[in-house]
Amino acid sequence: MEYFSITGGTSLNGDIAVSGAKNAALKLLSAALLTKETCVLHNVPDIADVRSMIKLLQLLGAKVEYTQHTVTVTAEDITDVLDYQLVKHMRASIVLIGPLVARIGRAVLPLPGGCLIGARPIDTHVNAFTQMGIKVEYNGDLYTFTRDAFRGSRVILDEMSVTATENILIAACLAPGHTEIRLAACEPEIADLARFLISMGAKIDGIDTSTLRIQGVKSLHGTEHTLIPDRIEAGTFAIAAAVSRGTVNIHGVIPDHLDAVLNTLSQANVRYEFTQESGEFQTMHILPTTIFEPVSIATRPHPGFPTDLQAPLSVLMTQANGTSKIFETMYDGRLGYIQELHRMGANAEILDSHTALVSGPTALYGKRITSLDIRAGATLLIAAIIANGESQLEHIERIDRGYERIEDRLNALGAKIKRLPADIHGK
């Protein structure tokens, strides 16, 4: 185990590039199992969750190579039983059901794990697969999905679930007949997955809408694809730069993926501007801000405010003139990090499992704090950067699941972060 030692009171300045999207990488790696031919993915972030997904693919029988942010997958012969411990460790492993059932007719896995952010049942997945004629059995701690009367159909999701949308989208590409997914989520990562599948030979309409239409094909072929940038990482860096009152140029941003975030930053009086790079990619310039204004956010499915950025935004709220409100609509256990911020001096209060108030401006002080999940860990890292004194941030392996070399990249902007082995901690 390792921890971060952070010397606070620094301002971030300089240039930083956004990595490939974590939530696209995991799903595209899964979708590569749909074909026996080779798929090549570029701009894949080197993070713990990607390494875990690659290990899962290898244990299923796929040949996988990962070099310099490029992953090559050849899944000529694969099995149907997923590694118990790896699945329990990573929620995104659930999207392996779609390609396994569609390709070889069966998938066996335990209830997937992941971040501790509240109840995350898979009922939406089970109901959706059942509508496609897939038999689902639950015995002990294992789910078995079997291709029974597998067919294209009209699938109405119980909720606008990102992973359920992706699971059904992947499976439908090889389902006989026509599939229509109603109440589909429309996150940018789903659109990226759809474009990847189309490049493999899939027939998909309705991208970026809540209704996806897929005409099943008999087989898919290999392809090459470059992932979109990670909008959550871009938002995290923007908040970190703003709250440190620095000047940071964030390269490789797609502004259209961040509408709700940009609107909220504007309301908070964060100063920023964009310059064109190429195509839809732009550089986001964060400029020094003197006074932050309070904001109220309610997390929603895209294009609403993303749940993965409500925690990082809370640090900016601690520095705003007035009281801000957080309403977390998606997960009932995602506000635990507020207690850690409170220990650092934040005037923050959890009203219930979905609501918190943060008042400012307040000075933050270095403390020994704990990462509760990927985004809470990034939040506390930002707080430690602007805090007075030294902080020790534990369980940083949770941050490593979603951010590549985050301490090196932030140190290049002027942060003072050291990664240290746990046996030094406290001595």
Descriptors:
globular, 28% strand, 4-stranded mixed beta sheet, 2 domains, UDP-n-acetylglucosamine1-carboxyvinyl-transferase, Chain, 427 residues
A few lines on this structure:
This protein has helices at 22-31, 48-59, 84-89, 97-104, 123-131, 162-172, 188-199, 231-243, 259-267, 310-318, 337-343, 374-386, 397-400, 406-411, and strands at residues 2-7, 13-17, 38-42, 63-67, 70-74, 106-110, 134-139, 142-147, 154-156, 178-182, 203-205, 211-215, 223-226, 247-253, 271-278, 281-287, 296-298, 322-327, 347-352, 355-360, 368-370, 390-394, 417-421. The chain is an alpha+beta fold. It has two domains: 2-19 and 229-424, Enolpyruvate transferase domain (UDP-n-acetylglucosamine1-carboxyvinyl-transferase, Chain); 22-226, Alpha-beta prism (UDP-n-acetylglucosamine1-carboxyvinyl-transferase, Chain), CATH 3.65.10.10.
Compute the average pLDDT. 93
- C-alpha Rg (nearest Å): 22 Å
Strand order of the largest sheet: 21-22-1-23
Assigned CATH superfamily of the largest domain: Enolpyruvate transferase domain
Q: How many E strands?
A: 23
Report on the biggest sheet: 4 strands, mixed
Question: Which strand-content bin applies to the residues?
Answer: 25-35%
Percentage of residues assigned to helices: 25-40%
The CATH C-level name of the largest domain is Alpha Beta
DSSP summary: helix tally: 14
State the separation between the terminal residues, measured CA to CA: 15 Å
CATH architecture annotation name of the largest domain: Alpha-beta prism
Stretches where pLDDT falls below 50 for ≥5 residues? 114-120
Shape: globular
Instruction: Examine the coordinates and then state which fold CATH places here, giving the name of the CATH topology of the largest domain.
Output: UDP-n-acetylglucosamine1-carboxyvinyl-transferase, Chain
Briefly note the structural class of the backbone.
alpha+beta
Q: How many discrete domains?
A: 2
